[in-house]
Design a protein that fits this description.
Blueprint (H helix, E strand, L loop, with lengths): L1 H23 L2 H21 L8 H15 L3
């Protein structure tokens, strides 16, 4: 039980750290990270295309949402 509690505490700490990093990162760095994530999703779909395009809908929706956010002035 104690190990599980430690795991939960570590998970909470890493989520808190990630949130702070997102909130304090410069806008260009945030944009770069989002674009890299979008590219990685599309690359994963491309790499597994022969088997089954797993994650295709997720990758396309992520890119669509990212495009909608960047198109607003």
């Amino acid at each position: 039980m104690i190990a599980y509690e430690r795991l939960l505490a570590m998970n909470h700490a890493s989520k808190t750290y990630a949130k702070v990093a997102r909130e304090t990162a410069p806008p260009r760095e945030l944009e770069a990270n989002l674009l890299l994530k979008a590219a990685a999703k599309l690359q994963a779909v491309h790499d597994s295309w022969d088997d089954k395009p797993a994650g295709l809908n997720d990758a396309l929706m992520y890119n669509r949402r990212l495009g909608l956010c960047s198109s607003t002035p």
